[in-house]
Design a protein that fits this description.
With 226 residues, this protein is mostly beta strands. It is built from three helices and twelve strands, in the order H-E-E-E-E-E-E-H-E-E-E-E-E-E-H.
Length: 226
Amino acid sequence: MILSNQVKFYLLIAGFAVALQACSSTTSNENKALITLAETKSEFPFTTREPQTYQGEFVVTDGTSERRWFIARNGEKRRFDVFRGDQPFVGEIQAGERILVNYEKKIFAAPPAGETSGLNIDDLAKSLFSGKDYREFDDLGRDGELRKYKIRKDEITKDDIVIYVNEALGMIVKQEFVSQGDPSKPPVKIVYEIRDLKLEPDDRVFDIPDGFRKVAWSEYRQYLDK
């Protein structure tokens, strides 16, 4: 479970993942299965795999509003924070024991096995970094320190999708989705990016914040829907 006003936005994020997968999947015999750069050279000039070690702030904007998350990973260690405004509100830390954190109440608890947090700790990152199969795209040149690629439209991909790659890291760091939708209305533009990306996370981010109080799960769970 998770805050009710966050649920719709997670569905939006899931939609981004579907959109990227749609532009990445095809039945064409001419396309080749993607082998990521993490394994060997491929026809993609960038990797489509989530890094094993990194930290950064994921931001989604639609021109009128902005949502933010913090994600850190060091192998099996994970941290995922949901922001409300400029401050983290709730989070999940996996560093041996799985811990849920409520930053507003300054409490944390270890949920029982099988209890879900609804935070989708893996999905948000994968929807930015990953692709499934090789697809055609056009190189639009450089945009500052990044290189732009536009996914070619076909019978599956109807929306305009542009990805931005940090060439030094060989990683997707930004995506733009533009959908016309209702032709009587202006197109909708969603920008999804990672900011302040570091490939060597600070190991302290996987610690429980100082001054937070451990509570029983029965006490913690009463705040999940508020």
